[in-house]
């Protein structure tokens, strides 16, 4: 016991002497403006080097242990969010990847989406044509115009609307006036300032074009799904219905996963790219055609990942994100507006044309698909990009033919031959 205390005392005294030597050396070096080690004794220098090495090794071990704990915690959370074993097998070697069922589902969904959107497009055109004919009849007959203006005036003359926005509030149409009346007729416990804020948002919304409204609607859907991912109680539901796993046997997740983001950076990057490139394409195609194009591009990118997953070198993992559909939008932008200038967020002073930047991005994804990189779903990116580049060449003509077919069927239905 006495020997241990004696040894500990000598160790403390030696550390105190070394500390005093370090302080003296640092003070002398500071006044002389020379390197510190030139005023240290060799024993002090060796001791400091050993202490720094030991401290660095211990901190590195702590860091590696922390990384291990983080990986274990992520794996635990992922295991807890997994669906049932029969729909999401943990051992992929004992489960075959289906190819025919998701292919048929994608074809049927794409065809149905384009037919429905074309029918909505024809219906809207017929309503506009009917309204134009009504205005022509009014001008030809010399009667006073009524209909739309009278309905808007009646909506804006509501006492609740006048109390909220006054008498001279400008509206862009009947739907805008209906929205303001709906806000004005909210219950009395809703604060007046909140109603005014809602009216300001509605004014901004109806000032947007139809293509911009479509883009921001898609962003809103993605925002809702992203918010659902942040609720721990919903993780099992989201993992089952908003993750696409080629081994699960579920086909509808090829669509739902394209509206799903779990990380903030992934969500923000895709939405910024969609708003930047989607508005011109939506304005050119129109609301209905762009809606069908965007949904089919997302499904096509997921289908490409599904079909090529058995031969890819990367580990088969569940995927999510709007990247495939966004790649389709960017590919369509490159084909429709090849001279578009773009700039990177972190390099705003360097400008590129889209025909220079997008092929380089595709080359990166091609390398990732060939070499088996698992950081992104590179095959889905390539599938969406190829679909987007091919659509302006062949898809627009098919859309026009489909619109003519729907219009002819409507005319035949309204005026059948006897």
From TrEMBL:
Domain of life: Eukaryota
Keywords, sorted A to Z: Hydrolase, Membrane, Transmembrane, Transmembrane helix
GO-annotated biological processes: signal peptide processing
Region described as Disordered: 74-93
Molecular function terms, GO-annotated: serine-type endopeptidase activity
Domain annotation Peptidase S54 rhomboid: ranges: 252-392
Membrane topology: Multi-pass membrane protein
Location within or outside the cell: Membrane
Transmembrane segments: 103-122, 264-282, 315-337, 344-364, 376-394
Signal peptide start-end: none
Pfam families per the UniProt record, alphabetical: Rhomboid (PF01694)
UniProt-listed InterPro entries: Peptidase_S54_rhomboid_dom, Rhomboid-like_sf, Rhomboid_protease_S54
Gene Ontology cellular-component annotations: membrane
Family of the protein in this entry: Belongs to the peptidase S54 family.
Name listed for the protein in its UniProt record: Rhomboid-domain-containing protein
Organism in which the protein naturally occurs: Coemansia reversa (strain ATCC 12441 / NRRL 1564)
Phylogenetic lineage: Eukaryota, Fungi, Fungi incertae sedis, Zoopagomycota, Kickxellomycotina
């Amino acid at each position: 016991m006495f020997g241990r205390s004696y040894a500990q005392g000598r160790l403390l005294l030696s550390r105190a002497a070394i500390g005093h030597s370090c302080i003296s050396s640092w003070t002398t070096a500071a006044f002389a403006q020379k390197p510190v080690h030139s005023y240290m004794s060799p024993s002090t220098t060796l001791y400091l080097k050993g202490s720094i090495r030991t401290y660095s090794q211990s901190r590195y071990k702590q860091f590696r242990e922390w990384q291990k704990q983080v990986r274990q915690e992520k794996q635990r959370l992922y295991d807890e969010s997994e669906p049932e074993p029969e729909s999401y097998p943990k051992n992929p070697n004992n489960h075959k990847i289906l190819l025919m069922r998701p292919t048929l589902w994608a074809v049927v969904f794409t065809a149905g989406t384009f037919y429905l959107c074309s029918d909505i497009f024809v219906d809207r055109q017929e309503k506009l044509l009917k309204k134009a004919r009504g205005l022509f009849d009014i001008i030809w007959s010399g009667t006073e115009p009524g209909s739309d203006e009278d309905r808007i005036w009646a909506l804006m003359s509501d006492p609740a609307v006048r109390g909220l926005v006054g008498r001279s509030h400008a509206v862009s149409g009947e739907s805008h006036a209906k929205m303001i009346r709906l806000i004005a007729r909210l219950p009395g416990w809703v604060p007046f300032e909140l109603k005014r804020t809602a009216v300001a948002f509605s004014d901004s919304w109806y000032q947007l074009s139809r293509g911009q409204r479509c883009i921001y609607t898609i962003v809103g859907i993605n925002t809702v799904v992203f918010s659902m991912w942040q609720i721990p109680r919903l993780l099992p539901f989201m993992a089952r219905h908003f993750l696409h796993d080629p081994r699960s046997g579920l086909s509808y997740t090829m669509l739902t996963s394209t509206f799903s983001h779990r990380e903030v950076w992934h969500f923000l990057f895709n939405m910024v790219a969609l708003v930047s490139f989607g508005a011109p394409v939506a304005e050119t195609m129109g609301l209905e055609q762009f809606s069908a194009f965007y949904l089919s591009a997302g499904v096509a990118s997921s289908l490409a990942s599904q079909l090529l997953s058995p031969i890819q070198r990367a580990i088969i993992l569940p995927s999510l994100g709007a990247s495939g559909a966004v790649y389709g939008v960017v590919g369509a932008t490159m084909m429709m507006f090849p001279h578009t200038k773009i700039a990177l967020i972190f390099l705003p002073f360097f400008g590129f044309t889209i025909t220079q930047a997008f092929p380089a991005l595709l080359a990166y994804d091609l390398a990732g698909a060939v070499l088996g990189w698992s950081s992104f779903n590179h095959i889905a990116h390539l599938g969406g990009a190829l679909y987007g580049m091919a659509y302006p060449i062949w898809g627009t003509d098919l859309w026009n033919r489909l619109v003519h077919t729907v219009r002819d069927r409507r005319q035949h239905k309204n005026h059948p031959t006897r």
